[in-house]
Amino acid sequence: MTHQRLRVTVWNENVHETTEDHIAAVYPEGMHGAIAAGIAPLLDGAEIRTATLAEPEHGLTEEVLADTDVLLWWGHAAHGDVADEVVERVKRHVLGGMGIIVLHSGHFSKIFIELMGTTCSLQWRDDGDRELVWNVAPGHPITDGVEVPIVIDEQETYGEFFDVPAPDELVFISSFAGGEVFRSGATWRRGRGKVFYFSPGDQRYPVYHHPQVHRVLANGVRWAAPTGERVTPEVVHATNERRYERV
Amino acid sequence: MTHQRLRVTVWNENVHETTEDHIAAVYPEGMHGAIAAGIAPLLDGAEIRTATLAEPEHGLTEEVLADTDVLLWWGHAAHGDVADEVVERVKRHVLGGMGIIVLHSGHFSKIFIELMGTTCSLQWRDDGDRELVWNVAPGHPITDGVEVPIVIDEQETYGEFFDVPAPDELVFISSFAGGEVFRSGATWRRGRGKVFYFSPGDQRYPVYHHPQVHRVLANGVRWAAPTGERVTPEVVHATNERRYERV
Amino acid sequence: MTHQRLRVTVWNENVHETTEDHIAAVYPEGMHGAIAAGIAPLLDGAEIRTATLAEPEHGLTEEVLADTDVLLWWGHAAHGDVADEVVERVKRHVLGGMGIIVLHSGHFSKIFIELMGTTCSLQWRDDGDRELVWNVAPGHPITDGVEVPIVIDEQETYGEFFDVPAPDELVFISSFAGGEVFRSGATWRRGRGKVFYFSPGDQRYPVYHHPQVHRVLANGVRWAAPTGERVTPEVVHATNERRYERV
Amino acid sequence: MTHQRLRVTVWNENVHETTEDHIAAVYPEGMHGAIAAGIAPLLDGAEIRTATLAEPEHGLTEEVLADTDVLLWWGHAAHGDVADEVVERVKRHVLGGMGIIVLHSGHFSKIFIELMGTTCSLQWRDDGDRELVWNVAPGHPITDGVEVPIVIDEQETYGEFFDVPAPDELVFISSFAGGEVFRSGATWRRGRGKVFYFSPGDQRYPVYHHPQVHRVLANGVRWAAPTGERVTPEVVHATNERRYERV
Fold first, then answer.
1. Using a CB-CB distance cutoff of 8 angstroms, which residues of chain B are in contact with residue A189?
2. Looking at this predicted complex, what is its ipTM?
3. Least crowded by CB within 10 Å, which of A40, A140, B30, B123?
């Protein structure tokens, strides 16, 4: 069952913010800080922590993950620096029931590629185009109370083809001023875990300060939270003893 | 958002129970009565009412439907007696966001056929076979806390091909002692509304007294409840004024 | 198995072309004529016929449908004039295996609404915006050899939310100069039949003279053709005699 | 477009057949030999070759894969001996458009796990139960001309939960004499490639000599063959130059 109090971990590589002044100016507390601050008021009483690449085990120890209902993931410049061991640990927890929300350039993270089984490549250009995020799943919990469309004044352009498996649910489609379209919000189930990918958000633009983006992410956290018992996804070779006599 | 207090209406044609003594012996309060009594303790504080074919407007007035989060539907002998006007009314509410759970022989109800767009036919025989209901969606809220498999000692056999659109989510698959299989639990979205079909349950067998069936139905009610604002599904011809200037 | 020689029927209400001079100027042979002429060279040897609303039984007799592998459907001004009996006949053939391609304003045709189970409503405005049709399913037979994107210089704008069940396969997404997006190519299976909806095409613009649109429609015909035996979709109440002894 | 002449490679680890006499007695030409011989007459003129683990690069060189439309994969005892480099090569070709059919215990092969993103675990016991394979997708090309159900007199039992992503298309469901059910035929798209998993088939039973199994596999080959241009699935970082001026 849903926990009384959601436990959320916002992970960010935190590289741009600590090495580029113009990014630090946009996100003085890091993108993880902006996201955590933005969703907190919308998730009454949730326990929200952050973790970054530079921490031991990237801040994603067995204990932290076991104590996390939903993990958010932002990465870009340092995908290759994420330890394979941590990726496998995160994957194991997702398959066991932990929710994961993958953000923007996280499409190329090891964990997302592992969960999808495809290249996860896409088309892009960075001209600060206006992005319009359209709701194609009214009634879906992730779109509850979200404006149609969300208007993001400036954002990097992502375009199709986005090489992911067909989503279980397509939630948002974006258009950009240059005419491109992108499946910008989509969900998949993997094992017992729920995966939500949401593309708006880039280090150069203040997208994670946008109230509507906060609303989507908070809704996403609630949607991705485990709905049943968390289990260990160890591969099960045990003989199935459920043989029944014919009546 | 989810209502504080779920409002549930259990609809039953209530024909077998009122015309056949051996059925009335199994369901002295009607199948609707057994279902309502079974799910109530699992839906803390939900407001659960029943309605039947014999009532004016089959008990499904505009007011009742507007005040219903999730409607359960059992029909068999009298599908043809359900007024088209009431069927259209129910459909309108489903498309606007009301959840609906269609039970067993309800696969041939007017409302289910209208929502599916197919014949909804299936194979069947009635030999009181044992049915095993297997969970193929662990982690799905409808399977939360449900035994694997659910063992139903005697039940009518339903078999494939079940002529419905590919489910959005396949939740349960049943086998029968005679070797048949059936997609016995499946979900679809239609408009803003959620549809859950669950096949176990027949007037001749005490399936709706089975605690595990109560658990599935209570979970189904929670799952099918509206997750966003209910709307009027009137066909919208209004010009879309959302034109944006290029940045 | 696929027929050696595909049999295609292009149906058009043919009202705008016969009552409005400026439409007749764009489509002197009717939209059905333009479509038939456009796809013929791409479907080597296919037998392509047309049918219109004004013909007896709208040209869609039992014999014509039994002799049709794929039916294309364009309607707009006269949806209400299509006889319910013909709609049910078409539906029966689709469920039995005949393919159907529903075009543009056909989203509000009786047959499409019946097959979908939803309102099929959408947002629209008509300002002659440029439409870009993006391929989100490379490798799908419907997109084989199609340019990315298809550029349609002027077209009516269709926008989300498009109230249809989640497609089995999403093939194209369009953007419009005004910033709207639309799921412009999508497929569903209903019974044994395949359904393809493709939105580009409007009576006021020469979209059905566009070579890339011809390519999509020809691919669609090949995709929607029956892949197995056509059957009568009569509701089957026959007892299933497939009971097996336990080994 | 489909090739005139399909090029098929049947891969088998070929370990049981070469190390256990009772298996060699069932499959004197190896399971790959039985499969190749069985499907050849049904794929008029297809070029069918075999490859095994013991060959250099397991017989799956860049050249062989580039010249293969559909690869069939049987593995069990030696999943761990398949070189990671070959697995990545196969994956690259699948994402680029090559079809793959994964057989029985191949559910635990490296390539299947990589493509699925889940554990691919399942329940099992080996008591030689009768398996009934039911068609839940009549009209699907994979089920064309296939008996309902396929009766396999003796086979290893596979049971749910089968930990794979929800299939794009569920084609077959099996029941076993002991009451278990299993999603025994399912499809997914990954990149431009099509994946078909079919569970019947075990080294101890003559399942790959069964004419109906030959029919399913031949249909599967035709279905999984590329329907568009094969591409290199290299991750694309190129700037998208498709910017359009507003009309």
1. 139
2. 0.94
3. A40
Q: Do A140 and B242 touch (CB under 8 A)?
A: no
**What residues of chain B lie within 8 A of the CB of D136, using their CB?**
160-162, 183
- Domain ranges across chain D: 7-115+184-224
Nearest to B136 among D148, D160, D169 (CB): D160
| Residue D230 near residue D192 (C-beta atoms within 8 A) | yes
Neighbouring residues of B24: CB distance < 8 A, sequence distance ≥ 6: B17, B18
Instruction: Give the model's pLDDT for residue C233.
Output: 66
Mutate to test the interface with D, among B118, B131, B134 (most CBs of D within 10 A): B134
Do A187 and A168 meet the contact criterion of CB atoms below 8 Å apart?
yes
What's the pLDDT at A1?
39
| Superfamily designation of domain B7-117+183-224 | Class I glutamine amidotransferase (GATase) domain (3.40.50.880)
Could you tell me which CATH number the domain at D7-115+184-224 has? 3.40.50.880
Q: Which two tokens stand for residue B22?
A: 């051996």
Mutate to test the interface with D, among A95, A195, A243, A247 (most CBs of D within 10 A): A243
B84 to B81, B233, B244: CA distances (angstroms)? 9, 18, 43
A partners (3+ CB pairs within 8 A) are B, C, D
Q: Which fold has domain A7-117+184-224?
A: Rossmann fold (3.40.50)
pLDDT above 70: percentage of residues in chain A: 92
> Does B233 contact chain C (CB < 8 Å)?
yes
Q: Which stretches of chain C drop beneath a pLDDT of 50?
A: 1-3, 235-239, 246-247
pLDDT at B231: 83
Tokens (6 digits) for B234: 């009137």
Closest approach of chain A CAs to the CA of D29, in angstroms? 29
**pLDDT mean over D75-84:** 98
- Contact assignment for D136 to B183 by CB distance below 8 Å: yes
Q: Using CB atoms and an 8 Å cut-off, which of residues 127-146 of chain C contact chain A?
A: 130, 132, 134-136, 138
Chain A residues in contact with D180 (beta carbon < 8 A): 240, 242
Distant-in-sequence, close-in-space partners of C196: CB < 8 Å, separation ≥ 6: C99, C100, C101, C102, C142, C171, C185, C186, C187, C220, C223, C224
Nearest alpha-carbon partner for D169 in D106, D113, D220 = D220
In this structure, are residues C131 and C176 in contact, taking their beta carbons and an 8 Å threshold? yes
Strand residues in chain A grouped as ranges (E): 7-12, 47-52, 70-74, 99-103, 123-135, 150-159, 169-176, 181-190, 193-198
CA D187 to CA D197: how far, in whole Å? 6
Q: What whole-number distance in Å separates Cα of residue D178 and Cα of residue A242?
A: 8
Contacts of D130 in chain B (CB under 8 A): 179
Q: For the full predicted model, state whether its pTM sits above 0.90.
A: yes
Tell whether C56 lies on the interface with D, counting CB pairs under 8 A.
no
B166, D162: Cβ pair inside 8 Å? no
pLDDT digits (tens, 9 = 90+) for D129-161: 999 999 999 999 999 999 999 999 999 999 999
**Residue A2 confidence (pLDDT):** 46
CA A223 to chain centre: 12
pLDDT at position B2:
46
Whether the per-residue pLDDT at D204 is higher than 90: the answer is yes
Residue A244's pLDDT is: 67
Nearest Cα to Cα of residue D127 among A129, C94, C246, A224: C246
Question: What is the Cα Rg of chain A in Å?
Answer: 18
Joined together, the tokens standing for residue D211 give 């004419």
